[in-house]
């Protein structure tokens, strides 16, 4: 299993009302692109959430997340949320809504 298919389905259900959503397999997981921008990703045991980098301090009371790090570099605006806390719908909705709220302000990748 490349990614948690059950979690991916739950995320997809929360995005189905949106016009421009694409699913792409990349980074050993499934990435949900919203309006041409990376928004949410699902891996084997976590969910990547792209959010406002200034909102991290507001998440201190939330369990099960950490800022993503690639190599030794923190990824500004990306957090990883453990699947352990995503079992409850209200928790999953919280993180999906954070990603969707930031999406209009997120920069799109440069087209190659």
TrEMBL record:
InterPro entries: TfoX_N
Cited Pfam families: TfoX_N
Domain spans labelled TfoX N-terminal: 13-102
Protein name from the UniProt record: TfoX family protein
Provenance organism: Pedobacter alluvionis
